[in-house]
Each structure stands twice: as structure tokens, then as C-alpha cells.
Description:
The chain is α+β, with helices and mostly antiparallel strands.
Amino acid sequence: MAQNANYIAVDLGAESGRVMLGRVADGKLSLEQMHRFANGPIQEQDSLRWDFDRLMTEIKTGIGMAARKADSPVKGIGVDTWGVDFGLLGADGRLLEKPYHYRDSRTNGMMDKAFAKMPKREVYENTGIQFMQLNSLYQLLAMRLTNPDTLAKADKLLFMADLFSYFLCGRPFGEYTLASTSQMMDMKTGRWSKAIFKELSLPLEIMPHVTRPGTVVGELTPEVAKEIGCGRIPLIAIGSHDTASAVLGVPGQGDRWAYLSSGTWSLMGVEIPQAIINDKTFAYEFTNEGGVENTIRLLKNIMGLWLVQECKRQWQREGQDLSYGELTTMASRAQPFFGYVDCDNSDFLAPGDMPARINKCLSDTGQKPTQDKGQMVRLVLESLALKYRTVLSAIEDVTGISIETLHIVGGGIQNELLCQFTADATGRKVVAGPVEATASGNILMQAKAAGQLKSIEEARQVVRNSFEMKEYQPQNVGLWDQQYRRFAAKK
């Protein structure tokens, strides 16, 4: 391993973005946050969009700060973001419009329109992806049906991380892990599904060339390098889907562990060598997304801490600005097992008055609503933990693997109450950490591309060497078993 190498990770999530300077040396990884900035949807007339130009400016600012701070030449830049969303480039290489946000309402009803053209089971057989109306497939179909003039001008479709990379290095590409979230890729072959594009009359010709993680795709253009004030640093296609990078950053050993990437979304699954697309995975609505180094992430998308985040924003609008720490403390003191909601209820998808929607869900299922903020947060956290148990049981059924340890990574590990609830509900040991798993995986994939690391196993050993983990042991398992039966009946 080289004595010291520097890399820059651009890591954008649904609530915030950050640019990190990473150093890999002597079997350890160190991370330093250079720049952090807010993210979220903006309203443009009647649609939700991403503020692409502002985000691009923030990214360049962060790269410049990191390049100046590095104690030796930077060997690479890697960009990761959430999945499914995309931008369209015209023939002149310019962005045709601000990219849509996945919570925009234009996809309402699009799944039914798709299945009228191609049966649901056939869509799954050709893609292996969980059905969610926010998937790129339904976004592109919505564009064909409601905004065909803009689509007709499109020369290239690029997913979000690759779109940012394009405006840094000037080269269009479609990184495999990010492309795999679209429900337009055949996950058995890793190529775009011709059947999907044909049956739904979608333009295959605008899709980018699929590029594997670990590929050096270019370097900063002279213009961007001059603007930022740095050299022409290489751009590396890492696991550009943030969950793909986060899974590389999981410190797992052996094959009897599962991961939970916890944040706005919860993504729970296992790493397997090839896609599993059969009647069981269809019934459980599992997704087969691409992973780094020829792996598949068999997982389930769960609404996650979005419900708590939206509650917090609503209470702030009403004049009470409570921190997440305060809300968690209030939840810890609230009544256990007051009520349950299915966190994946489609009524919770859009932004807005989340407490009112949670109370409606409680009333609709014969439960008592609550105005107590701590109580509401607690019932969401307990419902999430019980949902994790449901998904973990399904993973074991599909794979035949008995899971011994659940690794939780990402910002959600800062909610220690949820981590303990998860251990209690699943009856498994929970290992929490690292919190910056995505940035870690981003940097480590760059280090492998640069020849500094040789394998996933070596990368995960670096994670274990570099970060402290916290363990949670199951408590009150019998009581949680009883509550799980109640939860299953209510959702």
C-alpha cells in the first residue's frame, strides 16, 4: 500500500451534500469534511426540482477547498448521489431543464399506465427491481406522456451523480450501480433492457454507455480546473449510487450478515454474486441493484427516517424548532408500543404535514391518534424497527442464509434509540458504524482504481481498522415478539 494517497469524495444525499478529503495510508482511512451544504427540492411552478446549478457551484467550492488542503497530489474525485433521478442533455451538451425530484407528483398513476403496456410480472422479470412510482422508468414514461417536446430534444440521459461528473470532466457515462436503480436495466446481464424500452415506447438511444465502478472516466476539464484553482484531477466512476458506496463501507466479515443503510431512506439487504429474480423476490418486492466488484445488492427500500424528518419540519413551521436529539429524548420517555404505522404507506411519500398523515393512518387502522411529539416519534421508530424485522425474515427466506449480525451504517446510527429498537425487534446483534460509510466506500473504490487496494475484503479491513463501532444486543425479545404480531396485524 502506498505511503499516503489523497482522494476527494463528493457525497450528495437528499437532505445535504458534503465534500470530503480522504487519505488512505498504512491500512487506515481518514476523512475530513471540507464543505457541507443543504439540499432538498425546490418548487418550480407546479413541479419539484433539484437546484442543479447551485449544487454544482457547491461541489466545485468543496473540491477546491479539498485540493488546497491535500498534503500531496489528489489521485481522484468520485461523485455519489441518490438513485433514480436524472437530467437530460441536448445535442449541444447543455442541460435542457432542472432535473425533477423523485417525489414530484408527475409519476402518480404511471405504474398502472406501464402495466397496461407490459404486465407487472414481465417488468420484474426483465429488471428485478422493486416497484416504486419514483423509479426512473415511471419518470421517463411520465415525460413521454406529458412532456414529449422536451424529451424529443434530449440527446443523452444522465443519472444525477454522472450528470455532476459530466459537468466536471466533459464525458458522459452511466455508472452501473446508479443505472441499476432505474428499473430499465436487465440485472441478469447488466445492460439496458431492450424489452422495457420497446414495450413502453421509450427512447433507448438516449441512454448512456454503462461504465463499471473503478473506471477512470476522465479528468477535470481545463476550464473547470482553472475555475476551481487546482490541477486536472482524474474523475473516477465509483459506486455512484450512494448505497453502493455505503455497502462497500460496511465492516462485515464472512457471509452471515446483512446491512442497513440508514438515513432519509432505509435500505436493507445482503450482498450476493448474482441477481435473484423469482416468484419469491417478486412477492416480497425485493430489488436487485448493482454493487461494486461484480456483486448484486439484494435489498428492500424502506421509507426510513423521512417520516421523522418531515414531522420535524412541520413542527418547525408551526413554531417549535426541535433538534433531532431533543425529539429522540422525548421519544425515549414516551409510552412504548402506543401504535404502529406501515412506514412504506404511499401516503407518506410526498412532502407536507406528516403528523396529520400519521394520525390519519392511525385512525384508519382503528388506533388512537396523538398530538404528543415524543409519542409520535417513538411510534415511528418502533414501526421502523418492526419493519426491519419483516424484511430481515424475508431476506433469510429468499437466500437461505441465517443472518447473525445486522450492520447499520450512515447518519441514522446517530439515533441510538432506533439502533437499540432494531436489535430488540430483530433479535440480532446490531453493529453500528461508520456514520460516513458512503464517503468511505467512495474513497476506497477510488483507492482500488488507483491500485492502492486490491479487493473488497481489503477495503473492508481498512474500514475496521479506521472507525469505532458500537454494538447493541437484543433486549426484551419476548415482548418485541408479541408486539411484532400486533404490528403485522395493523399494517
